[in-house]
Every structure is written in C-alpha cells, then in structure tokens.
Amino acid sequence: MHSGTKKMVYKSYAKIKSYLKMKLKGDLFWYYLAVFCLFSCNDSSTRIQAKKGKMTESVYASVTIQPEGLYNVHAATPGIIEHIIVGEGDSVNADQIIAKIIALDPEINVENAVISVELARDNLKGGSSVLKSINDEIRSTKEQLLVDSVNYLRQQRLWEQNIGSKAEFESRKLKFDQSKSQLDILKKKYSRTKNELESNYKQSINALKKTQSTLSDYFIRSRMEGRLYSLLKKDGEVVGLQEPIAQIGRHSFIVEMLIDEVDVTRIHLRQKAMIALDAYEGVVFEAKVSKIYPQKNSLSQTFKVEAEFVEGPEILYAGLSGEANIIISEKEDVITIPLEYLLEGDKVKTDDGNIDVVCGMRNLEHVEIVSGLDTETEIIKP
Prior knowledge:
Elements: H1 3-45, E1 47-49, E2 51-67, E3 71-74, E4 79-84, E5 91-92, E6 97-101, H2 105-125, H3 130-160, H4 166-216, E7 219-221, E8 226-231, E9 238-239, E10 244-249, E11 253-260, E12 272-277, E13 284-292, E14 302-309, E15 321-338, E16 347-350, E17 353-356, E18 358-362, E19 366-371, E20 378-380
Helix pairs in contact: 2-4, 3-4
C-alpha cells in the first residue's frame, strides 16, 4: 500500500476510535442516570404513612359450585342394566324411574303371587267357597233342628199326659240334642274355617307385596325432584351395589367451600362470603354461610362449609370453581399498613430505627395497628 494511503487510513481509524469513546461515555452517563433515578424512585415508593379506613378480616377458601342435595344413585340389587330412561341434563320427579335392571325370576314370582292371592280370595269370597258349603250344612241342620225340636216338645207333652212310651220320648229327645250339638259344631267349624281363609288371604297379599317390593328393586328411581347431572353407566353394563349409576341433584345450587383446619373455628353460620368464580372474571358475588360440616377430610386436612348465594349469577353449572373470602370481622376508622411493611416481632422500620407496634386484625394485604404508630410517621419497606 502507498505510504500516503496508509496515513489516510490511520487518520480515519483514529477518528472512528475517538468517536466510539465519546459515544461510550455518553451511554454510560445515561445508564448511571437511569440507575440513580430508579433507586431514587424505589426509595420514595418504599416510604409510606399509615392510613385510617375500614379494615376487613377474612378467611380464604377454595370454591366449587354444586347442585343442592347432589347424591350418587345406586341400584338396590346387582344385575345388568336393561334400559336407562332419562338422559344427562333431564329434569326428574321424585320417585320417577330412571333405569331398569333385567329381572326374570322376580317377575315370575310376582305372577305366582298374584295367582295365590286370587285363589285365596275365591276360597274366602267365591260362589263355590268352602264357607258356602259349611253355611249350607248349617242351614240344613237348623231346619232339622226345628223339626226335631217340634217332635220333641210334642212327645214331651204327650209323656206328661201319660200318653206314649218312654222309649219314644227319649228317642225324640236324643235326636233333638244331636241336631243341636251338630249345629254348634258346624258354627264353630264355619268360624274356624273363615279365620283360616282370611289369614291365608292376608298372607297371600303380603307375599304379593313382598315379591312386588323385590321386583321394585330392579327399577332405579329418583328420590327427589331435580335434574340428572351425570350418567355413569350405559345400557347392557353390569352394575354392582357399590357402583353409582348416576348423579342427581336439585335445580338450585350451593357454594361448597374448603376451609383450612386452622381457620375453621372462626367460621360461623350466616357469615358473609365474597365469591369470585373463574367463569365470571372480575365479578364478585355475595353469599351467606349456611352449613358447617363437623368432620375433617383426612386427605385434604380441610373442613367443608356450604354457603347460599344472596344474589348469584343467572347461569350456573355443576363443578364451576373459584375462590372465596369469608368475612370474619369488620372495623371502621382503624389505622392500617400494608402487611409487607411489618417486620418480624411486630415492628416497623422508620428513619429513627425500628419501633414496636401492637397489631390487631389482619388479612392478606393489611394489618391493623392498635398502638405504637400514627398516621404522620413515615415507615420504610424492609
């Protein structure tokens, strides 16, 4: 390369190098300025004063929306599902049949029981019944007794007048006594037979009811008016006593909440609960605690609590989830600070050092300061 050309290249390189140094210094200046502003801003944003206002203490709960009275439908006897009558989402009435299990033997038993009832009824009340036969004997014996009574009385009067023989008188008396005794026997027989036939008739009716009850076990019914929310079996599937076939609940819904065991003792009936559902983002619904279950779930270590909407959403579905805050207590005109400004041991940081405070209510964001701090003193975020 020519020497003149080299000098020109070196001069251009020096200018570029000088420019880059100046540019770098300028960038460093703006960088340090930004860092300074950031720390200055942070320093000012971490200094606040306690405020007076309303303080609310609440307990957190996870939420699931469930139909009221939801229960699992079970079969009363094992078998094969012959036909499911209703579908998911259908409304059902109390005692409505929702499915049928195949039942051949019970149907035959019912038919036999019906035949037994009809036979027992004919024996008791039919035109050719046993009682009618005995009654005919009684009527015939009464007629014979009347004849024997007349003959006996006539012979007795004759004997009193010394007319006729003693043997004839005694024969008439014996025949009268025999007819009278036979009538008593037939009356007792009629009464005994009637009691037996009535008893047989009642027993056959009870046997029919029992077989019909057994047959009814093969019809799966709803025990409430509501809706069938889910079917867990299909036609032709085998079902056991422990296997649910469907889930049925009422049309109305309840709020099912799970409360941690450390908080459950603070929950009481009629407390207000603020509900936020994932399906209704940004909307909060008010509810009231309606039931507290006394048994802890050993798996989740939580207690189940139910609440009823004061004014819920127009559309709800089983299984909707969300969160709730159950209001434990509320206070007006109290001094509060953000919970993140409170040091361990109930202290706050100030320009004069850490100072002790007495705390009251707490929630997820704020804590009440009962004493030790006023609204004029600045506190620093630790």
